Amino acid sequence: TKGNHRHFMLKEIYEQPIVVAQTLRAYLRRLEGTLALPTEDFDLASVKRVTIVACGTSFYAGLVAKYWFEQFARVPVDIDVASEFRYRAPVLEEGGLALFISQSGETADTLAALRHARAEGQKIAVVVNVPTSTMAREADLLLSTHAGPEIGVASTKAFTCQLAVLAALAANLARAKGRLSPDEERAIVRHLSEAPAALNGALAYDEAIQEMAPIIAAARDVLYLGRGPDYPLAMEGALKLKEISYIHAEGYAAGEMKHGPIALIDENVPIIVIAPSGPLFDKTVSNMQEVQARGGKVVLISDYDGIQAAGDGCVATITMPKVHPLIAPLVYAVPIQLLAYHVAVAKGTDVDQPRNLAKSVTVE
Ligand code: F6R
């Protein structure tokens, strides 16, 4: 049931601290400060390349994970949406791990891609939320998210749980490759363990986000900008807004603005900038100032330091807790989900059952 919440989507957004903690429990030994996988008998050390395939929100989780696999494990990563992957001629060499991400474990294109990869000799890993699903049964390495049933059509808690599993997997792979010292492993475990409390901190801005929702609800088009792992998050924010509020939105890499999309900017196009303070902050802020100089109305999502440094001149700011960069994508997912939610409620759309969409896409 929805409990005290008006919609399943809101309930599921609020469940994230608990279900992410629940999920992480299967992948970390917090007291020992070590990583773990649900199974010991999968040979990660021999993985030479990772090919990630998924659809929609699960694909964006995969895009974030690409940064982690490269950064921690130094393993090359290919990634594609399932509907494209299965109709190209992907080069799948020996020693490849094909990784499929799916809340339902039933998405037709992702499942077909899995079978194709298996036929091409890849080892198959899946990140799924339904342990009895077809993908779960067909995997060599089953990595469950423990988000519980997700009812709202727009994926929320499954996404943050996918990110938690993928971060742990990337770190496990790094360890198997001899690229993680015990100290580094302990630090990663500590950072991941801080995610549930940080998610709670992010939820505290619900009311502030609700108050600024009318600015977005009045727009015809909205842009989301981010860099690094916040770039896929920008695309996820745009997808969330499109699917439940029916407002046209696009996510862009902040540095790509001047290569075309900046032509769209005027005072009618709100721009949501996702920029936790950190190594990429100044770069993103300079792109943000370029759109402000053209009259663009910016909503900046950052932490206290980021808002202090760059919040002036924004139409609104959303302050996130200060977190380690590893968990920032999980934490910053919350305000983009809440923003889409409140905009949809302001517009009076059917939040849990948006038009034309199905929870599980079992046809091509
Ligand atoms: C967006 C959304 C969809 C799904 C996509 C994949 O909010 O829910 O984009 O993420 O249909 O579904 P799964 O993860 O079940 O394969």
From TrEMBL:
Catalytic class of the enzyme: transferase
E.C. designation(s): 2.6.1.16
Domain SIS: 38-179, 212-354
Compartmental location: Cytoplasm
Molecular functions (GO terms): glutamine-fructose-6-phosphate transaminase (isomerizing) activity
Coiled-coil residue windows: none
Source species, domain of life: Bacteria
Catalytic activity field: D-fructose 6-phosphate + L-glutamine = D-glucosamine 6-phosphate + L-glutamate
Chain segments annotated as transmembrane: none
Active site: 359
Repeat keyword on record: yes
Keywords annotated in UniProt: Aminotransferase, Cytoplasm, Glutamine amidotransferase, Repeat, Transferase
Free-text function comment from the UniProt entry: Catalyzes the first step in hexosamine metabolism, converting fructose-6P into glucosamine-6P using glutamine as a nitrogen source.
Known partners and oligomeric status: Homodimer.
Name the UniProt record assigns to this protein: Glutamine--fructose-6-phosphate aminotransferase [isomerizing]
Species: Sphingomonas vulcanisoli
Name of the gene this protein is made from: glmS
